[in-house]
Amino acid sequence: MPDFLHKMLLRELVFPDKMASAIVFSSVFLAIGLGITLLSLVFLIRAYAVRNWPETEGRITKSRVESYVSQGDTDNTLMYKAVVEYKYSVNETNYKGDRVRMGQGASSVEKSAARIVKQYHLERKLPVFYNSSDPSKAFLDRKASKWVYAPLLVGLIMSALAGGLLHATLTGKLKPESEKRGEDRMMSMKGQWSGFSSMT
């Protein structure tokens, strides 16, 4: 029997619950990490596609900072959001938009929202980038927010940690304290098996 399988079988006999729990935990954690990574990549592909969208002229019709209270488990946080609305036309059809850039959201820092409102002030004329397949979808900025990269980073870290834990568990490199205390039992089982073999 290969040494790897021999060790794995002994570990299963001595620590079936511990090993099974570690494998299930790391496998689930790995699946979640890979799922987040995959969804993040799809979102990033869409974000980069915006850079190739055609443009038309638009006009800002609303630009102000709005605040609301975000309720958390332990406390409430006052959040600020830049509300920017604009009008534009494509092929003589008028549209309204309210998205500045992909991934743009609220912030707990009022200055961040105020900076956007100042940049896209009321009545300003500027380029609007729209989806040629669906002109009702548009942005004022082709560049996505830096926050769109955060889920990808989280997914990669989760996948790496879970993959490392799963590999260490299966190869026997991960030894919990309870397993260290049971190494004598494993050696005893080997000795008993050897003694039985010599008798036969």
Task: State the order of secondary-structure elements, H for helix, E for strand.
Answer: HHEEEHEEHHH
DSSP helix fraction: 40-55%
The overall pLDDT average reads 78
Query: Hey, roughly how much beta strand do the residues contain?
Result: 15-25%
Tally of contiguous helical segments: 6
Low-confidence stretches at least 5 residues in length (pLDDT < 50)?
A: 4-15
Structural class: alpha+beta
Main β-sheet, spatial strand arrangement: 3-2-1-4-5
Account of the 3D structure:
- The protein is an alpha+beta fold and 200 residues long.
- It folds into 2 domains: 17-53 and 143-181; 54-141, no CATH class.
- It is 50% helix and 22% strand.
- It has helices at 3-14, 16-49, 110-119, 150-171, 177-181, 183-199; strands at 55-71, 76-90, 93-97, 125-130, 138-139.
- A 5-stranded antiparallel sheet has the order 3-2-1-4-5.
- A hairpin with a 2-residue loop joins β2 and β3.
- α1 (3-14) crosses α2 and α2 runs antiparallel to α4.
- The longest helix is centred in the first third of the chain and has 34 residues, at 16-49.
- The chain is elongated and about 65 Å long.
- Mean pLDDT is 78; it is low at 4-15.
